[in-house]
Amino acid sequence: MRRADGQVLLAQRPEGKPWAGWWEFPGGKIEQGESALAALKRELQEELGIEVLAAYPWLTRSFDYPERQVNLHFFMVRDWSGEPQGCEGQILSWQYPYGLNVSPMLPANAPILSALCLPDVYAITNMQELGEAVFFERLQTALDKELRMIQVREKQLSEAALRTFASKVIALAKPYGAKVLLNSDVELAQALEADGVQINSHQLMQMQTKPEGMIFGASCHNELELAHAKQLGLDFVLLSPVLATQSHPDADTLGWASFSNYLVDYPLPVYALGGMQQEHLLTAWQHGAHGIAMQRAAWISGND
């Protein structure tokens, strides 16, 4: 369950249950013949006394506990009726995923908390079309409106010019706590102390292990690339193109149905890319995405 302010609901396992005292996301077991969504609605009604009004498929992960392996189907519950209460004697707490003040968390939830720290919208720079002055004006406006993750992608720039441009983006983003990732260039990202790197599909398929100490996202277009990103345990992926884009209007697109099929039982957060507008965010959630990634649409002003 996630509130509009980004806080998520955690529950402490009560005495008498395995792992008593540990914190977890509310949920429970899927009964025979029951769908994961139906199980979620039933369990949250029984455990919290609420009615789920809007829940979207999110991640599916497996975890090996000493006593058994569990397959976990995570949904993002964004709307409900009623005030959550600990109907089974469990203590509840609303928490920001990037700053928990309760512990310990069940071990299976560590990667889930990391995924929850990723924002819903991922913006890709477009200084080439806008011009530098306009771009930085719009970046400032977007940061003021809570943009919290940016990919620096300006293929036309020389190495020196890219370094200068990226440094300015990082400097503007830092006071807001916004994450900045550089496209493809691991060494420059490390030198500039950027938050991470967005690798292309070719780099992805050449990578054997995920480098430590930075956020790593990958651009994917098919099942093979998605599977390799999963094997590496990357932090997130972009899946594209979902819809037609201005830059590649004749390219084959996935469409929402195929996009959703690719994400069945997928463990990593996925951003939908290609033809995205802000109004596509709800549709993306409904089809299993963590959020949307945008280039041109991320920097549209009221005068465009």
From TrEMBL:
GO terms for molecular function: 8-oxo-7,8-dihydrodeoxyguanosine triphosphate pyrophosphatase activity; 8-oxo-7,8-dihydroguanosine triphosphate pyrophosphatase activity; 8-oxo-dGDP phosphatase activity; 8-oxo-GDP phosphatase activity; metal ion binding. Signal peptide: none annotated. It is an enzyme of class 3 (hydrolase). It catalyses: 8-oxo-dGTP + H2O = 8-oxo-dGMP + diphosphate + H(+); 8-oxo-GTP + H2O = 8-oxo-GMP + diphosphate + H(+). One of its GO terms (biological process) is DNA repair. The keyword Ribonucleoprotein does not apply. The keyword Transcription regulation does not apply. Residues 1-120 form the Nudix hydrolase domain. Pfam families: NUDIX, TMP-TENI. Transmembrane segments: none annotated. CDD domains: NUDIX_MutT_NudA_like (cd03425), TMP_TenI (cd00564). Its cofactor is Mg(2+). Belongs to the Nudix hydrolase family. This is 8-oxo-dGTP diphosphatase. It comes from Methyloradius palustris.
